[in-house]
Amino acid sequence: MNEVRAISIFVRAAAVGSLRKAAVDQGISPQAASHAVMQLEKSLGVRLFHRTTRKLSLTEEGQRLLQSVEPALATLSSAIDDARRAKDEVAGPLRVSAPMALGRAVLWPSVLEFAALYPEVQLDVRFDDHFTDLVSDRADVGFRGGSPPSGGTIARRLLPIQLIVCASPAYIERHGKPSTVDELDAHRCTGYRRANTGKQAPWEFLIGDEIIYRDVAATLCANDIDAETDAVLAGLAIGQLGSFSAVSHIRGERLVPLLTQHMTQRESIYIYYRHRTEQPLRVRTFIDFMIERLADNKAFFLEPAELRG
After folding, report:
1. Structure confidence by residue, pLDDT tens digits, 66-115
2. Sequential DSSP letters for the chain
3. Residue 114 lies in a domain
4. What is the domain range of residue 215?
5. pTM metric for this prediction
6. Where is the HTH lysR-type domain (predicted)?
């Protein structure tokens, strides 16, 4: 027996004084309505209605039950209405999960723009370089750099990640610049320590048609990409930086790209989410907004002509 449905029929029948009218209101047959109420009475072990051919009235037990369940049904009805409205309004809570590495450089400006456009959305943005899925993070939308996430989510590629070796003009003026990968051994280099493993990430290079990995001795290592970028900008060392961190500085002539013939473009930045049909409007609107702002946005990667230059 569906107790909530049976109680709803009982409450409506008590209000209109007729099981037949209650059945019409509920969109079911009179027989189904009568059966539901009888099953409820059987389950409770009491009669809820006095029944005659012309009249339906509450017993004392029925009156007590009505007084007890009406507030709860009103609350349930209000909650259902709220859920329906949430599907059609750009309002309510929105949880976003993203790596710290992408936060300030790529995502945050667009997130702030969205927040200004839709002030009724309560954004909860969590930056964490340890990758977790949407379920464990209790997130509506996630971002990820690397390979597309799996596990029942939809992933949309936003941007390529180019790994660009670069140095500041001040570093090059003092130490010169390498013309081959092997010459990096004679230079000061930065390193990035991955949050999920605690290990220093190797540098990677395209040699011919093959990607090779090199463990570069780091004179300065950090587990924060922005901190590593700052070290390269300060002229302390050469770094291999993601394009999303480096491109604005390269175009602003604060950094110089090196060894571009060996640059790799193996990974990408993705937005991922559950099936759109399951999402309220605020989530769908955020997904569309971020895709519009970021997908293939040339502000975050170098074009072929720039690499040749």
Report:
1. 888 888 887 877 777 666 655 567 899 999 999 888 888 899 999 999 99
2. --HHHHHHHHHHHHHHT-HHHHHHHHTS-HHHHHHHHHHHHHHHTS--EEE-SS-EEE-HHHHHHHHHHHHHHHHHHHHHHHHHHHHHSS-EEEEEEE-HHHIIIIIHHHHHHHHHH-TTEEEEEEE-SS---HHHHT-SEEEEEESPP-SS-EEEEEEEEEEEEEE-HHHHHHH---SSSGGGGGS-BEEEB-TTT-SBPPEEEEETTEEEEE-PPPSEEES-HHHHHHHHHTTS-BEEEEHHHHHHHHHTTSSEEE-GGG-EEEEEEEEEES-GGGS-HHHHHHHHHHHHHHTT-GGGS--HHHHH-
3. yes
4. 161-266
5. 0.70
6. 1-59
